[in-house]
Input
Amino acid sequence: MSRKNINSYRKNVRIDGEADGDYVLYWMQINRRLHFNFALEYAVAYANKLQKPLVVLEGLACDYPWASARTSTFILQGMAEHVQKLGDAGTVTYLPYPEEQKGSYDKLVRDLCQRAAILISDEYPVFIMRERNERLEKELSIPFHTIDANGIIPMALSQKAPYSAFIFRQLMQKTFLECWEHPPLEHPLKGLGKHGDPGLSQEILEKRKTGMKRLSSDKEIEKFVSGLSGLKQDIGPIELKGTRAAGLKRLDDFTGNDLLGYDDDRNDPDKERTSRLSPWLHFGKVSAFEVVSKVFAMQPDGWDISDSRPARGKRSGFFRGHAAIESYLDELVTWREVGFHFAWHTPDYDQFDSLPDWARETLSDHADDPREHVYTYEELAGSQTHDPVWNAAQSQLRQEGRIHNYLRMLWGKKVLEWTPDPQTALSYLIDLNNEYAIDGRDPNSYSGIFWIFGRFDRAWGPERPIFGKIRYMSSDSARKKVKLDNYLKRYSGL
Ligand SMILES: Cc1cc2nc3c(=O)[nH]c(=O)nc-3n(C[C@H](O)[C@H](O)[C@H](O)COP(=O)(O)OP(=O)(O)OC[C@H]3O[C@@H](n4cnc5c(N)ncnc54)[C@H](O)[C@@H]3O)c2cc1C
Output
């Protein structure tokens, strides 16, 4: 495939037509970065082609689902970093807008579209971005293109929803090299020509000024966020910072210190040797391309990715080189991206009915099985169960906005066991995950949560009460398998 072909899979022309207006409008909705970003690169190329100025809009609504002070602060910290980099840069007009009044962000998008030649934005398969894009596609009358800058393998390369990691891995192994050879530009804005002033209205310029002020310091961000009544204020900011700089630092720490021990230690919550990059991957602060590139740099001498050949969907044998690296890339590329591809092809990705038939059948066969423990949402959220391991995991989630992956699986399985029926379990898990987890509201939130109920998995025997043929996990066996002493000390009683 030629460069044009492989990267053309990233483009979704939602509304075609002549681009006739004052500026090119790029709306950064989820891949919130200025580097290695196919969507920004496309917007720059369009601005150069039309010889029109580029306006980059990045905002934050005050009333999105599961809105909290935690998520909003993280996003605004990232936007503040963009103000510092682009605030008064000559060639691009950066327009940051954290909304205070419900509806004013939406109005700003529509006002900007009135005089835009084209709207370019992020292709994203879940959450409000998917809904917004679908709504705008029906309402706008200017050209509207969305670009998939989410991962290495463009979502449009899969023909239908991959129902297992194995199926997706086969596609990944066949197409990885071609995608890898056509990466996004590191600095797309460097190529932007000078195309004059976009001539934004006074009202829009005022909004820009207000946005800049709200982002002018950590204190201003804190003040602004604490004044928003639509946010859950009790789910507060966390230690992690939502900047690209913080994400890159985490990436350096991981590749420098922990990557080569990843296969041995990834399931050990006491050791904490996973990358912990999911928050920055989720908000697009760091691109999967640059993570893979850093990881490849740690391969042994003589290793070369161009020697890779498809390994029939097997977990090892494609990336080769260091076993720890192969194991990490299976998570970062296969497991991360299967969730994007699945959701993209599955409009009801967040509904119980999107589970495979075998899983729905076995869960409904056991829906009326007696439950020894049944907890309310509030009891779960407050870590008030009989199980110290579960309570510790939920406390970590509540306090730090994350749970170690191994315990996250156990955490989800127990909610299935301790709620009146699988549908209630699903709805509690979606709310708990998306409300508290800083990496929540992601395609992988739905991969992980639905995996608890059988998505991307197979039937297991023997059949058990409540779970039926769904894979079972218990806290007792987790305690035998992994050391949790420090973990429990740290998070018990929070
Ligand atoms: C119930 C449940 C809910 C989950 N909710 C989320 C969520 O909201 N957001 C989220 O990003 N992930 C979610 N996951 C997947 C996984 O737990 C996290 O991606 C991982 O723990 C993030 O930690 P890390 O960055 O240290 O991962 P690493 O082990 O360092 O892996 C590197 C990257 O690979 C991807 N990855 C790793 N494991 C998985 C996996 N099992 N499935 C999909 N992608 C994976 C992530 O992008 C991760 O950052 C969930 C899993 C479960 C069981």
Observations:
- The chain has a mean pLDDT of 96.
- The radius of gyration is 23 Å.
- The longest helix spans residues 323-345.
